[in-house]
Request: fold
Amino acid sequence: MAQFQEMMRQQLESSMHAELEKLLDTSTGAEREVSKKDFEGFKNIFHRFLQVKGPSVEWIKIQRPPEDSIQPYDKIAARGLPDNVADSLNKLVVVKLNGGLGTSMGCKGPKSLISVRNENTFLDLTVQQIEHLNKTYNTDVPLVLMNSFNTDEDTKKILQKYTHHRVKIHTFNQSRYPRINKESLLPVSTNLSMTGQNSEGWYPPGHGDIYASFHNSGLLDQLIAQGKEYIFVSNIDNLGATVDLHILHHLVSQPNGKRCEFVMEVTDKTRADVKGGTLIQYEGKLRLLEIAQVPKAHVDEFKSVSKFKIFNTNNLWISLAAIKRLQEQKAIDMEIIVNPKTLDGGQNVVQLETAVGAAIKSFDNALGINVPRSRFLPVKTTSDLLLVMSNLYSLDAGSLTMSPKREFPTTPHVKLGSSFTKVQEYLTRFESIPDMLELDHLTVSGDVTFGKNVSLKGTVIIIANHGDRIDIPAGSMLENKIVSGNLRILDH
Reply:
């Protein structure tokens, strides 16, 4: 039986290699060379995908991480900062994951170009933050954007507007992998082009691709040659992911033999984060456990806040020299995420992806740092957008901070219904963003609009029935209210 399975695997692999060669033959020059490099990575992930048997973790072997492997942020910050902060900053590169589109929020083009505050986009805020650091400390921290073939062209056009800012910006592209038919496990594309029928035949393989594509681009070596030692990697839509001088100082001040090569910022789970990946100890190494790897019987246990108390923010600090070493040794090990998709024509395909944090187990002296929740402020939906556009936050040099006027440091729970999903539609429903300083919970469903200077406090639930419309009048103050159907306002 095992022999037969091995034969089948080999057959599938040689069929795949033949198909990839055919695809390469449909192009010439630079495009062919880039695709050839990409396909080397794809062959590797495909080979591993065929080898995998059963779940990637044995639940019984999972242990809680040792006490010292996840440090509280306060302990790291208590050490204070050195006089020469500039020396540490000059060893740093900021990398933003910029491969995603704004489609989930109803926007065309890169997500990083959506306006989030005072006409500033995610990218504007990132540039302002780094420029502020470079001016304050007289340093040269560069910004690197990892684009995908979906975002590269539009991003490069917009980068021209930053030419006179004090921040050097580099870009490199994620790989482009072929989507494979769920049944035949062969590519659905017939040539290397991105147009027509083939436009759906390709995908960027998740942010775990950063190690290979950063290395292949030549940028990694270039930055090492400039004396850079660490990258700070985060999602461009996480507005809490600013450069933290205490974590940076902790990294660069360690003795050489004990250098920490990988820091993952984690934060305490709330009910909203039960699906987030968590850190575990597994076979003597710190390891990221994602919900996709959890056997069905243990999913509830994984989601429980009592056993797994923290989750990964995807703010990561990684040694450049270590990435180079591990890439050259082909020693970065990341679990494969099998992502099933259905194309517009109804065809079922599979995408093989990896996640950047999953490589933690390949690095030496890896560490988790339990950071304040404020370092995790992702904008995935218009509900998140409402929070960051409101007076809950103030904006200073590209960084958002919670208003000191809010008594509780926690963010309110906001749930906007489907009429608010698209950014353009959401914006037309608010004449101005309500005062939310004393809000705990907001649920809005149906056709609802808000006049100017509305104030929301405590728990506010607004539900317009199908066919009804509710207009919250200008200047209204709703505190612990349920507003329903025909604008009856009830105490909550």
Summary: Residues 99 and 148 are 4 Å apart (CA to CA).
